[in-house]
Amino acid sequence: MIKVGDTLPDARLFEFIEEATEGCAVGPNAFQARERCAGKRVVIFGLPGAFTPTCSARHVPGYVESAADLSAAGIDEVWCVSVNDAFVMSAWGRDLQTAGKVKMIADGSARFTQALGLDQDLSERGMGIRSQRYAMVVDDGVVKTLNVEAPGKFEVSDARSILATLR
Fold first, then answer.
1. CA 136, CA 107: separation in Å to the nearest integer?
2. Where in this chain does the record put each Thioredoxin domain (predicted)?
3. Looking at the DSSP assignment, which residues form a beta bridge with residue 16?
4. What angle do CA 84, 158, 88 make, to 5 degrees?
5. Between vectors from CA 100 to CA 135 and to CA 88, what angle results, nearest 5°?
């Protein structure tokens, strides 16, 4: 499992872009995680799945509500990473009104999640390979804080816990 002081794996992730910009077409756009974090302080939080109960009711909304506080604490971007495709992550982001606050990042093949060593097999629950629930602060591609939840818990990966580590 990745640990504090490690560099992020250079895995490819996807973000659905709603409006075309220079270098980004409408639709799923691929990027390298390590490259995207270069020169930035990023909070990355992972969770088991889009539209799931705790993720939708508490995890993502907490980061949306705390976006201004995270920015004030020196965070450049907040990413929600899940083992779902970019279309699902985009729809979930629209549903939770994350625009401009939390980037909804797709790890559809779980390559990033597995490279972190934070995958879990939820096949018996009909969900396949998914992410554990976690949050990390990454500074210029290096993990500075890593909070991984115990199975079935939601106590250390929330926005308030990450804000406490930044103060």
1. 16
2. 2-167
3. 28
4. 15
5. 70
We report the CATH number of the domain holding residue 37 as 3.40.30.10
AA letter at 105? I
Residue 5 lies in a domain: no
pLDDT per residue as tens digits for the range 111-151: 999 999 999 999 999 899 999 999 999 999 999 999 999 99
CB atoms under 10 Å from CB of 82, counted, come to: 27
Residue 76 domain boundaries: 12-166
Helix (H) or strand (E) holding 68: helix 67-72
Choose, from 24, 37, 55, 80, the residue flagged as catalytic: 55
Q: What is the dihedral sign for C-alpha 122, 29, 78, 93?
A: negative
Question: Is 55 one of the annotated active-site residues of the chain?
Answer: yes
Question: How many folded domains does the chain comprise?
Answer: 1
The verdict on residue 39 lying in a domain is: yes
What pTM was estimated for this model as a whole? 0.94
Cα(117)–Cα(24) distance, integer angstroms = 30
